[in-house]
Amino acid sequence: MKQLEITITNETGLHARPAKTLVNLVKQFKSNVTIWHGEKKANAKSLISVLTLGASKGSLLKIEANGEDEETALAEIEAAILAGLGEGEAVKETQEKPVAPPTSKSETKPIEEIKPTKTNALRGVGASPGIAIGPVYQFQHQEIPIDEISDTLVVGWERLQDALARAREQLNKLNKQMIEQGMKAEAAIFDAHLGLLDDPELNEAVYERFQKGQDALKAWKETIEDSAMVVAALNDPLLSARADDLRDVGRRVLRLMVGAEDKADLLPDKPVVVVARELSPSDTVSFNKDLVLGFCIVNGGPTSHTAILARALGLPAVVGVDESVLKLENDSYIILHGSDGTVTFNPLPEELQLAEQERNAWLEKRRVALEHATTPAVTVDGRHVEVVANAGSLEDAEKALKMGAAGIGLLRTEFLFLERTTAPTEAEQFEVYRSIAEVMGKRPVIVRTLDVGGDKPLPYIEMQREDNPFLGERGIRLCLNRPELFRQQLRAILRAGLYGNLQIMFPMVGDIEEYRRARLMLDELQIELKIPRVAAGIMIEVPSAALMADVLAKEVDFFSIGTNDLTQYTLAMDRGHSLLSAKQDGLHPAVLRLIAKTIEGAHKHGKWAGICGELGSDPYAVPILIGLGIDELSISVPSIPLVKAQIRGLKASDLQALAQQALECATARDVRELVKKELKM
Ligand code: PEP
Ligand code: MG
Questions:
Q1: Within 13 Å of residue 678, how many CA atoms lie on the same side as its CB?
Q2: Domains in the chain, please, with CATH?
Q3: For 211-231, how does the pLDDT look when each residue is reduced to its tens digit (9 = 90+)?
């Protein structure tokens, strides 16, 4: 056994990020590593355990390693701690220049910006269009009545293991489903839940309780609760999300142990408007969608998973609502305006009547839009906008055709690569791409090459540990460093292209060299396979690419702006962050200026520019994007008919000035107000 003593110098101690960095590092070694902080002891391969050490700046830790690679393990751990566990720069910076505390509450609480519009109304962020009117149902996590159950049911160790195995199965399935729907952040959450299920320290703590004579059910529940409480008490917003994850996983296993009904069955058996502080991905996917009229959520923004799911289901949703909605009584009436984010509670009879008229008009609008789904999207003054679909499977492609898509503007190919132990073969990939190409016929299908990376590692690809996976080896960077994997995919796409109209798009390009290297590989393969030149474009989702659009446009065939990532990187806000997501609005003038620059750069060289992020189906964004000159909108399948109908009602020549005004606005909220006022929405 080897040991060392070391002092933590990180400004905020061993909080979530450095702790995770440390745990990920230690997991790479075979040795058992224990960390002592005074009397407290932690298994260094368990995040929960390391977090509960509560080590702050100046804490002296004793680290012991025991095993065949103990020496290397300790040396690397020491080096990593000395380097600041991924926070080296931050530490230096805070020492030189103390960071001032926030000057006003609104800097930390986006919700404060949301002002009531009238006495019985609140304004949140419209996340999915439509109008919902109905009784409130305050959704809370169902507590499982352990005490009553354990009187009649003694849960043994095997039953717990069986529940854990089934939970693992469910989480793997959910993870896959989310990926197929393009909901990467949610997929990552289920992946994190899987990590928690396998946390060695958690399992050991449960086992200890069980050995001391506690029933496995109680041992599990209490261990989860204790760990979540300790983690939540550390008062770190990132950690409180971990505590919520722990509770979510804990409830899943408990339900499986006691054979409890799924939460879907626990909704009242009549249609309701679901009101909640936050919905976990597990909650949202388990609801019986026929009984949900709409969602009214306190946390979360327009790119949160509830918002994406609500849009996919065609249900109205308002997010980022003031938490006073949580005090509304069950069964009291509420009206949600999913487009402008207004929430009216306890409406007066005349308000109810008006809302019903509006809802009927909206339903009629949707019916007409569906009826005319295949009519082209041409503005009243003759500007044609190509409306195409975001798809992740053959099934999506088939639905897209029925909904009037002119093609596929983004085929996410990740679904073929995840949840497996080896990469899909060229033949497997070819079959899938070919079937989609055939279904779409002459219509263009833009196949995005593999877009995975540090935040979504593939088990069969060796990858370096990263402190900031979103800034790491993602997208095209990963493919360029794995030429065999990349070539295999390109060959499959090129061959499948002979059965339809496939084009290729590279994700996360930040620099022209990356595009050139990718294009060169493509050109070589075309020669080898004797296939004529295929168009290749890039996603614009990194600010550097948007700023250099006029240079890139000389060489690439087209641009498709990935506003989900472009917003994340421009505003420096993690797209999955629960506290920041309400602020992540792609209509932020900073993002709009980058979009404008991209379109301008493309047109200067006769190339086209489209949008394939969530912003493309936002009714407030559509007029601005047309005003900026966008050529194509690639959007989720259910949004297609409505967006096409909206375009048919707009006059492009009026929108240029509107878009210019939007670029001059100060905030995303100002842009929304402007569109609302000018277009009387
Ligand atoms: C985007 O970033 O806007 C995008 C469309 O890509 P993804 O959501 O798959 O990252
Ligand atoms: Mg992206």
A1: 20
A2: 2-86 (3.30.1340.10), 105-141+264-352 (3.50.30.10), 146-260 (1.10.274.10), 376-679 (3.20.20.60)
A3: 998 888 889 999 998 888 887
